[in-house]
Amino acid sequence: MGVERGKLIADRYELTGRLGRGGMGEVWAARDRVLHREVALKLLDLDGIAHADLPRRFEREAVAAAQIVHPNVAALYDRGIHDDVLFLVMEKVDGQTLTARLRAESPFPLTRALAVASGVCAALEAAHRAQVIHYDIKPHNVILTGDGLVKVIDFGIAGFVQAAFTVARSSQLAPAGTPEFGAPEQFRTERGDERSDLYALGGMLFAMLAGRPPFTGHNSIAVVRRKLDEEAPPLDAFRSGLPPEVTTLVAELLARDPDRRPQSARLVQQRLQALLASCAVADAPTAAVPPTPPTRPLDDVTRRVPRPPSPGSWNRASTDETPFTPDALLPRRFTNDLGIEFARIAADTRPSREAGPSDLVRELARRDCTEVVAGVYAEQPGSHATPEHPVHISVQVFAFPDVATAQDAHGYLGDGGGAWHLTIWGASAEGGLTPGPDKVRRSRRWKQTWRKHRYLAVALAYRADLTNDGSITPWLAAAARRAATSTGPRNHHGA
Q1: Which of 25, 66, 163, 312 could lock onto 111 through a cystine, CB 3.0 to 4.6 A?
Q2: Across 185-263, where does the E strand assignment appear?
Q3: Please, what are the averages of pLDDT over each run of 10 residues along the chain (495 residues)?
Q4: Alpha carbon distance 10, 390 (integer Å)
């Protein structure tokens, strides 16, 4: 491919170090000289592959993948062609691949395996909503960051690579999907659909719990042949003592017939969240889970001391005791991925009963969340900030007793959860918080959620001008994403 450290791609991206090499190209760390940030650059070397439709297909897949904006998905920033090599510019994620983590510790504890699977499933749900199928979900394409976040990489890219091959030829089975984790239909003449990604998710959950993938063989062809001819082995044959709900879910995900699998990532996520919640209850000390009175008045809810993490907790920072105040959890200002600066114009700590309607308040109370830190940010002068139509962001941070409860709440409140309506805060003339005007809900807006230890942040960016100008959407998405990920304990600088 003729690339080396220091090479400039598209007069913009300076290669700083090779991160890995695959069958069709390389991944490099690079420096974006325009936006002054670190990125990952994937170079796809298609030399010798005769397919006149590849550039158009590459463009389509990249544009589709760029529509996915989710904390569990590594963002796709740019794409292009340089010296007849296709390249994609992606978010650089620091952490370990799930492959490396499994190599170091396998099998996983049940709670950790379910939490990773839930993160991957949330990414799949967001991608499938954007009409993007991954086609190559496997441990190597999942990164676990240092702060416990699950990131799925290569969305859209695997689908593009697979479409470049005729999967019926045995010599090209590997690009159609990884044999150990790809769905059986991907190795026939059909391409598969969303349920193919769910099959791969089942294979990963099996591997995390059993210490090995469901199918093995002396070579890739043997593994694929077994997948086409046999049903997956039962998980409890390799690990006993698992809840039957877990083994049943894995068996359904690994069904050879796609019609027998769960039909959407949303349905799978609901089951994973229920399993995580039941594990948290089972692991918690008896004294730490007092029965909740069925009709406890919300006004009588008092703040509780956070419980210690359960013995099976995989995030030992779950008892983070950062003071629950705006200055400890909310930044005073931040800059988003597009270089636009936002400044905080109002902030306060409010009782959770002001966070939204009664059903939301009940769920917060059930999870021992009694207060919310709220802040409002205004875009500083920039491309889309005008005196008539400024961009604002309403940020709310919820504190839960421990990381398991926060994870459960993220399933309900977050991007993969049920429908809900938070209070959208604005700034009053006196500089305090006030509920935003009704027209905000009818404006262009974008929501992003983020969890850091036991704190769950929700950011909603909006421009309340009631126009149909869709060009603002990428700006709102970038603003909401950075607002959410900028909150949390990192802003506490206590003695």
Answers
A1: 312
A2: none
A3: 80 88 74 89 68 64 77 85 82 87 87 91 89 87 83 73 44 54 82 88 95 87 87 90 92 92 91 82 47 37 39 47 86 82 88 81 84 88 57 89 81 53 78 71 74 87 70 78 86 65
A4: 34
**How high is the pLDDT of residue 52?**
57
Catalytic one among 11, 45, 53, 136? Answer: 136
**pLDDT on residue 121:** 93
Per CATH, the number for 95-281 is 1.10.510.10
CB-neighbour burial class of residue 54 (10 A; exposed 0-12, middle 13-18, buried 19+)? middle
Residue type present at position 401: P
Task: Decide if 197 contacts 264 (C-beta within 8 A).
Answer: no
| pLDDT for residue 280 | 65
What is the C-alpha radius of gyration for the chain, rounded to an integer number of angstroms?
23
Instruction: Tell me the domain boundaries of the chain.
Output: 8-91, 95-281, 321-491
Report the pLDDT value the prediction gives residue 493, as an integer from 0 to 100.
67
Residues comprising the binding site for ATP?
42
Cα–Cα distance between 425 and 446 in angstroms, integer?
A: 14
Among 135, 139, 117, 138, smallest CA distance to 72 is for: 117
Confirm whether 136 is a catalytic residue.
yes
- The residue written with tokens 């409010």 in the block is 350
Query: The tokens of 371 are what?
Result: 């207060």
Known binding-site residues equal: 42
**What integer pLDDT is reported at residue 317 of this predicted model?**
44
Tokens, residue 314: 């995989």
CATH class of the domain comprising 8-91: alpha beta
Q: What is the pLDDT of residue 142?
A: 92
Q: What is the pLDDT of residue 55?
A: 65
Rounded to whole angstroms, the Cα distance separating 437 from 456 reads 25
Instruction: Give the whole-angstrom CA distance, residue 427 versus residue 393.
Output: 10
How many Cβ atoms are within 10 Å of 297's Cβ, its own excluded?
A: 8
Among the residues of 86-184, which ranges form H helices?
98-104, 110-129, 157-163
